[in-house]
Every structure is written in C-alpha cells, then in structure tokens.
C-alpha cells in the first residue's frame, strides 16, 4: 500500500510518499517567507494552492512511481490555520476523486511524533514537540497520546518570531536569535513553569521591554533562548519522572535549534534516558509524516467517506485513539544509590536519629545556565522547606522536616511508608476511588484556605500511608498566593495528572475531588470564583474546542 500525504497547516507546503512498511519514498516541500510581518492565513493558503500541484509530480518522480500507483491520499486535517487547512483538504479531495482512490485525514501533531519514532527507532518516548504554532510535551498513556504539558498562551516558535518582528530581526526569528545568542550574556528574564505547563507571553514582554531599555540585543537573545528552553526541558523532565519512561524525542520545527537539542540531550543523559531526534528534514512540517500517519490510521480504522473530510482547526493531540502504539514499560534504570529521580531532585534513602528518612537533593542541572539554575534551586529549596512546615498548620499531613541545607540545596525529611496515588488509583474500586478523591479535594481545600499553592499536584506527589492517612509530597513549585487563578491552576494540574492514568475515569474522579474541595473551602464567594476560573483556564488550552 502506498500513501501520498499532503501537509499545509501553516506556512510550509509538503508532499510525501510512504509505503505500508514505513519506507519513505519521497518528501518534497516549499516554505512561505513573508516579506514583512508574520504568516497571514490567506497568504499561506495561496502558497499551498500554488505549490501543491507542483510538488505532487516532484514527489512521484522522486519516489520512482507513477501517480496511478498511489493507493490512498492522506492529508493534514488539523490543527492549523483555517484557510490553509481548507486548501489542503480541497487538494486532497480533488486528487482522491480524480484518481478514484480513498482518502484519510490525520492529526498534524501526532504526525510529528510518529515520523520521529519511525526515523529514530524510538519506541515509547516522552516527546517534546515545538514549532511556530505548538509547544507540547506528549506521551502515550491509556490508548492515546496525552498532553502532559503545553503552552498556556503562545508557542515558543511564535514567541521567537514575534520578538524577531518587533526588534527588526525579521521572520522567522528563531535562526537569528540562535546566532546572536552565541555572543550574549545572561540578563534576568521571567521563568514561568506552572505545574506541567509553561507560559511564554510574559517572557516575550520582558524581552521586548529589555530591548526598549537598550539592553544589548545579543544578551536579550541569549537570555530569551536559555529561559524559554530551560522551561521546556524542565517540563519534559517532569513528564519523564511522572511516567518513568526512558526515552525522550524532540520533534517540530524548533528542533533546528542546536542549543535546544544540546539541552534536551544533557537532560536525558542526566535522567538516565535515551535521546532521539529525527533527521532535520522530518522535524519541520513535511508530507512524509502525513503519509506515514495515514498508513497507521488506515491500517486500524480504514479510510473515510469524502463527506467526512472536514477540517478540524483546533484538533487536539489527545482526541485521537492510537491503537498502533503499544504501552511498552520501558522504564529508566536508576543507580542503586538513588531511590527515585524527580524532575529537579535525586531522592536518596537515609536515616535520622534511628528513623527512616529521605534526602531530597536538588542536583545542579547542566542543561541550564548557572545564573538560572542556581537561582531556581536555592529559591525552591528555601520555599519548599517552609511550605512543608506551614502546611501542617492547615491540618494537612506532609513529611516531618528533619534538616535543611541551603548550601547543598537539600532537604532531609521523614520517609513516608505507603503507596503513591499514581500506583493505586487504577486498582481501586469505584467506592474506594470516590472516598480517596473526596479526601484529596478536602485536603487541597484546607491548603487553599490558607493561601498555600502546591504548584505541582500530581498523582506522583500524593501518598496514602500505611495507616490510611493522605499525605502531600514535593512542594518544589509551591508558593503563597490568594489569587483565584493560582488556586484554579493548582486543581487543573491534578486533573491532567489523572487523565494520564486512566482517561475514562479522570473526569468523574475530578468531579469527586471538587466535591471534597467545596466541602472544606470556607469562603463561598472565592470558592465559586475558583470553580468558574477552572473552566475559563481550560478554555485557553491550545486548540480547545
């Protein structure tokens, strides 16, 4: 079976041909470079309309086949720019009807992951997908690719492009920023990681303000790049720690940046994971990835009727069933002296005055520049130690604090004997899950009553001890805040974490958690504002319908 794929979600037009054994027979393309400003959807559509008829015969010739040898057409159904997607879909339908062969639409983001796996041999990775329009941390769990982390506003590529346009560096901004950064030094810019998500709009604004103040452009470029990539790599490592996978895949157009590749490779090595990145010609938008995902989709679901080939402009990665992906338990192998490895700390078994203890040591992160790394590690160690103590005043259980070493960025604390919520949630009966969910929500409410924000409430950071008590762990991203936004975000981090365990029960469980939360939160007005804010924040998600 031979699939011809057509890609055109944004400014790049691509046509690729792939057979059902994963042999990439051809991949050709052309990119739109606007004379000024960013990518205009109408101009992108016109670009695709011009180039698709030219690229199809090129792809066929490169593949060494006749057009009549193509068995079906694959096209990028979304997400992307509406006019661009409609042009691609029209071209695909036209080709399908003229050749009298079937058609299938596929998800653009998943195409990047699957071509990356095909080209590198990665089996079950945590994928960092970064492009002009997308920034997502993706991993397979429970039948679908789950979005463990994503931008809350703009994508990293869009951030760089916007900075490039506003400062006269041109479009695309990324390559110029990378070049100028080679001669820059660090200046302080906001580092914004919210649980498993990241935000670039504040970083962009701060970088533009620095430019207007006359800060050397090389220094801004260096700091913008280091800060943005540090956030992306940290969240990727958080997903690695949460899933216990041992593979990291980098894909998307921003993969062209050598500094990002270097940082992610360093992180993977330090986390005892394998790093993969496809050939550069398959990192950016390309037709081969669409053709290959079409093959996988056709194998399990078949093709579709032409009337069902409508575009899905806001097509989320986690909407698609992917039965061809097997959940291989490819876990990291840690050295014998490390009990567990989190995103920012090594967890070591110790003893204190005859009691079982845990040493949480914030090890230096070689992928981050020292100015950012030292600041983050010291700040988080100090903040976490205070929060571990303060949370007990809320009536919430956390490990007993034994010692804090700010010079070593380490915390010695009680070892909790019991089970992580992540490890037991799937095996609980509905009644037990209901009771645990209510308890979780109740305890979060007690925290929020005192304006304590955990910052990283995941099923990996909660335990049920041997006596049945509920315990919060890991306050590394914690803070004090009375903002409705921060409390709502705290709850949403947890919701995403449950979706990664079992999507079928996630929403039900989260509703029970909210019931428990309501039962303990004292301020009725503030409580209602938090619940409404949760819905509002969810609606901001990338490509949320």
Description:
- The chain folds into four domains: 2-115 and 283-316, Nucleotidyltransferase, domain 5; 121-281, Nucleotidyltransferase, domain 5; 340-414, Phosphorylase Kinase, domain 1; 418-539, Orthogonal Bundle (Transferase(Phosphotransferase), domain 1), CATH 1.10.510.10.
- It has a five-stranded mixed sheet with strand order 3-2-1-4-5, sandwiched between helices.
- The relative contact order is 0.11.
- The longest helix is centred in the middle third of the chain and has 27 residues, at 217-243.
- The protein has 15 helices and 22 strands.
- The protein has helices at 41-63, 82-99, 108-120, 156-166, 173-181, 201-212, 217-243, 258-270, 287-301, 370-390, 421-424, 430-449, 484-501, 503-520, 524-539, and strands at residues 2-7, 12-19, 24-31, 72-78, 103-107, 126-130, 135-141, 144-150, 193-194, 197-198, 247-251, 274-276, 340-341, 346-352, 355-361, 401-405, 410-414, 418-420, 452-453, 462-465, 470-472, 479-480.
- A hairpin with a 4-residue loop joins strand 13 and strand 14.
- It is globular and about 75 Å long.
- Helix 13 crosses helix 15.
- The chain is α+β, with helices and mostly antiparallel strands and 545 residues long.
